[in-house]
Write a structure and sequence with these properties.
single chain, alpha/beta, D-amino Acid Aminotransferase, Chain A, domain 1, D-amino Acid Aminotransferase, Chain A, domain 2, 3-stranded antiparallel sheet, globular
């Protein structure tokens, strides 16, 4: 996609958590991928780097790709310069433009049980379930749904249609493509129990929408697939049942219990 069709202030972004407790949790798990995404205080940092590189490639941003060539240790050193207090957790928002200029916004975030950052199959942690609505309108897949960018008006609109007014509310809305398939959440990746377990012996009990449905290639999604928590599977919005259990995840909060609410 050519940069000249993009708004002048357009950026690719990735949001993640800084938490000094994360490396301790990483030591208790067995990494299934290399590099291990849980060895730094930056949650799933190698996956965030990969996500940003893929977005820069999609938009043809050579200068941005040059900046993103640094390895994880170098990127940790870069991000460390923005952390006001390394004993506290922070929410980071990394923004990159077509010139390769990188901004890092840092804001306080609440402390959480570090086990939230492992997949549900790795912990028995129980938490309060978020209410999960289904958007009443349809969203056409595009580069702006596959990659996380500052073009987020359609996510905001979906949240408003569901009456969500704050990012601190334990509420989410699922986006749906024109084929009626669940794409993703407005700020999370969703996971659902497999509908058809026939021939599924040995397969994970959970599925997440495939990227072909149009959703975001999220970092926690990457982690959940790599750790074997889930596989990909198309989910029709009409197949979801009121009150059914699901899981949600993102790069700041980790994994969260959810419950479908049909209205």
């Amino acid at each position: 996609m050519a940069s000249n069709v993009l708004p002048p202030d357009f950026k690719i972004i990735s949001s993640l958590r800084y938490d000094p407790a994360l490396p301790t949790i990483g030591e208790r798990t067995t990494a299934r991928t290399s590099p291990d995404p849980l060895t730094t205080p930056y949650y799933l940092l190698p996956y965030h780097q990969e996500r940003l590189r893929n977005a820069a490639t999609c938009f043809g941003w050579e200068k941005t790709l040059a900046f993103l060539k640094q390895d994880t240790d170098q990127f940790v050193e870069f991000l460390d310069t923005f952390i006001p207090d390394k004993t506290k957790p922070w929410r980071l928002r990394i923004l990159l433009d077509s010139a390769g200029t990188c901004e890092v916004e840092v804001n306080p975030t609440t402390s959480m049980n570090p086990l939230n950052f492992l997949t549900p199959s790795e912990t028995s942690l129980q938490s309060t379930a978020w209410r999960v609505y289904i958007d009443s309108e349809r969203i056409s897949p595009s580069a702006f749904t596959t990659h996380k960018t500052t073009a987020r008006d359609f996510y905001t609109a979906a949240r408003h249609r569901s009456g969500i007014v704050s990012f601190v509310e334990p509420v989410e809305v699922l986006l749906v493509n024109p084929a009626g398939e669940i794409m993703e959440g407005s700020i999370t990746t969703p996971y659902f129990r497999r509908r058809d377990m026939t021939g599924g012996e040995g397969k994970p009990a959970w599925i997440t929408p495939p990227l072909s449905s149009g959703g975001n290639a999220g970092t926690t999604r990457h982690y959940a697939l790599a750790q074997g928590f889930c596989t990909e599977g198309i989910i029709a919005a009409t197949d979801l049942v009121d009150g059914e259990e699901c899981w949600l995840s993102n790069g700041v909060r980790g994994f969260i219990r959810g419950q479908i609410v049909l209205r």
